[in-house]
Amino acid sequence: MFHRLIIDSPSFKRVIHLRNSYYSIGRHPSNSIVIPSPQISRHHATLIKKINTNLEISFHIIDGDLEGNRSRNGIWVNGESYLEYELKHGDLIGFSTDIKGYYQAASLETNVDELESLTPAPLKIPLPDGISYTPQEQWGKTMIPKEKFQDCPEEKLKKLASIIEYSPYPIIELDYFGQITYLNLAAHDKFETLIQERLEHPLLKDILNIAHNNENYIVHREVKFYEKFFDQHIHYLADSHFIRIYIFDITERKVIEQSLNYQAFYDPLTELPNRFLFKQELSRQITRSQTTHHFLAIMFLGLRDFQCLNDTFGYTIADEVLCLATERLKVHMRLGDLLCRWRGDEFAILLTTCNNAQEVKIIAQRLLDVLKRPFLINNSPLYFKGNIGIALYPEHGDNTETLLMNANAALNDDQDLVNPNFRFYHSLITSRQSGRLRLEQELHRAIDNGEFSLYYQPQINIRTGTIAGMEALLRWDNPAKGLVPPNQFMNILETSGLIIPIGEQILRIACEQQRAWQGMGLNPCRLSVNLSARQFQEPDLLPSVLRVLEQVGIDPSSLELEITETAVMQNVITTRHILEQLQQAGIYLALDDFGTGYSSLAYLKMFPFNTLKIDRAFIKDLPHSADDIAIIETILTLGRGFHLKIVAEGVETQEQAVLLQSLGCEEMQGYWFSKPLSAEKMTQFLQQEEPRQYNLN
What we know:
The protein is an alpha+beta fold.
């Protein structure tokens, strides 16, 4: 026995030979038998094969799916509604008003003529003036019985013919020899070269090859013709040896799909692949390398202090910088490498053609070098430095997530003293970052519990032996650890953003202590307070400083703010504007760590600084380093030329103090004079008579 179901509708006919034990029927593409009509439910019906004890096969039709969800229209068999029905040969199944099904079951010896005689009378669908549609093996073909010709007005016949002829959708018919037998007007107008090109035309390519394998079936395919996309519904009419093609322009839909696909896998700002595409490619390369044993390297590249740029100048300027950085990095990508925007100011890079770690180092340094050049935004140079974290396959991980996690850990590790700009992952990084996370949580509690205090280190005028100023230094008195060295927590305060809430507290405590000393009639020297790069980029910096000075009640001239070169160079124009406002308010300004960064003469001329501080890096090797001596002499000459006060930091021996004095440096600060003191001990220090022991004259 063979069993088949014939689906019959005004637009198509489909024959399904029932061989499987289960079929789902509905309009959703996931069904076994898809009926593309809005009148059909998503999961309209289910066919189940059953075998009885005599090994006889029958098919049962069930309304809806196997989970008990019924269809919208129900299932009608021979005019009766059923939830479940055992089909018999000749049964007529109603899915909707115009979509029917015929069930046939016959022995394998039954010939076609006998089968047709067993088929029930075809469904008649009323049309105007007695004309009716009779489903045929030739799908979609409208047949008008000859006996109706005399009774049907000519204008009615023309109206029926015009439905196809004037359809806005192109319709093409050709025979199995490739000869075009019919084009409607839309096909003529839209595809002028169809007749000349015939089977060479993109719309008809491979049509005959597909026909041999798709008799009595509908084939859907998409074709691109110039810049347009078309969806073809190809009906292969095996009995009549014709192929009928219905064509729909889907260009708009394809453009939307391509746009959505692009947005899913590409960053709209930089037009680089995003993290999802990067992960897919990394996974593919790992699979490939498992058989070819290729070397892979994954880099995470981040821009330092980029968040400050966002906070200060807004996202428009920050986005422009990101696009410029992208263009620089793309130039240095090799064929086979993949650059993507991971998030924010972070890029991910997949290197697939390196042979060893040394090659990766060279590439990393090259990428960092191209980012060092200033970014010119609105005729104003902005400076950034990059950090790179690197993980190697298979040394640092044998799967996608592990490699990405370890490369990111290397990026965020800041304790590599050999090369602080790019770092290869190693196991200590993970343990360090766990400790860093614990420390950050402790810092949150320390702020809440008031564990921070200020210590003060005097600055001595070596010529007079008097105190010329003081620097306020933050100290953390941890209940369990005691005094924690600043180099263990300052960077975490900065990178985590905790420096912002604690920054104003520091300024207020320092100003209140200055007012207390002034009230005691002690030496009225200027007090220096450090501003971090993160604080300096805060838009409300000036109002915050002025508010503290006013509330505490001290003269602005008794306060000096120290700013590092790194903070100054974030944006020259804005930096100059902020510094000028601070100076106009009467606040003194010091450039800290001078000589370790850019040290441009143009910037010394542009910015209204009062003081230059020589970094301790140039002091520690004195008096034995000729290079450091030459640098210090240059800084002193610059300072005198720009009428700036010069203070040398980190003076720890008398030899260093004597040498600096001989070079012309008058003001110094360091452990040889005094270590940082608590407010109480600093008060005692100020109460001493003239400390002449510091006068080396």
